[in-house]
TrEMBL record:
Protein name per UniProt: Nitroreductase family protein
Organism field: Neobacillus mesonae
MF GO annotations: oxidoreductase activity
Keyword Glycoprotein (UniProt): no
KW Oxidoreductase (keyword) present: yes
Length: 209
């Protein structure tokens, strides 16, 4: 990676802050949101099974209704869109699709594809649901962080929200029992600077052995 690229990425990381005040008149097109999501879904996942799904809420009236479900958080209504990130606890249903796609793209031969499909089908459907939920939660954390950085790289702001009524969300948006609402992510243009925060010094949280 060139020094310029490294500095640019470093700037994105340092400039990303959780923003709660948004310009309600600023709208991000669905094409741009799709671009951000296409960058986000390049995140890693367990066995590449990609146990995530997204609901993008950009209709103003629907956002008002969602605000009530999300503890009346203002940014739900004033941001350009809210992206709900869902975890797929039945990620094993993606097995054949994922590995066949890799085969068709030329990333693995047919024998490897068949072996990966067989091994994954022996493993994942038989893993206890609590473990699959944990895998999905971990992987949705990875894709959510990548989503926030992808948005910042395009000049947009975000804030992740775990504080919402997941049962009411599930009912409102008719979410299948296969999926777990993990977080809501407000996306838009900041109307006021984010509150700066500090971090625990690295020397207090790392050991080199």
């Amino acid at each position: 990676m060139s020094t310029t690229m490294a500095q640019t990425f470093s700037d994105i990381i340092r400039e990303r802050h959780s923003v709660r005040k948004y310009d309600p008149t600023f709208k991000i097109s669905r094409d741009e949101i799709e671009d951000i999501l296409n960058d986000a879904i390049l995140a890693p996942s367990s066995s590449n099974l990609q146990p995530w799904r997204f609901i993008v809420i950009d209709d103003q009236e629907t956002k008002k209704e969602l605000r009530l479900i999300a503890n009346n958080q203002e940014q739900v209504e004033t941001s350009s869109a809210v992206i709900a990130v869902l975890g797929d606890k039945e990620m094993y249903r993606n097995i054949e699709k994922v590995y066949r796609s890799n085969y068709e793209a030329g990333y693995m031969d047919e024998a490897t594809m068949q072996l990966m499909i067989e091994n994954s089908n022996r493993l994942y459907p038989n893993v206890p649901e609590e473990i699959r939920k944990s895998i999905a939660a971990f992987d949705t954390g990875l894709v959510s962080m990548q989503l926030m950085l992808a948005a910042k790289a395009k000049g947009y702001d975000t804030v992740p929200m775990g504080g919402f009524d997941k049962q009411k969300f599930t009912e409102k948006f008719q979410v299948s029992d296969r999926y777990m609402p993990m977080l809501l992510l407000a996306l838009g243009k900041a109307a006021a600077p984010a509150h700066k925060t500090t971090r625990i010094p690295l020397k207090d949280i790392v050991d080199f052995i």
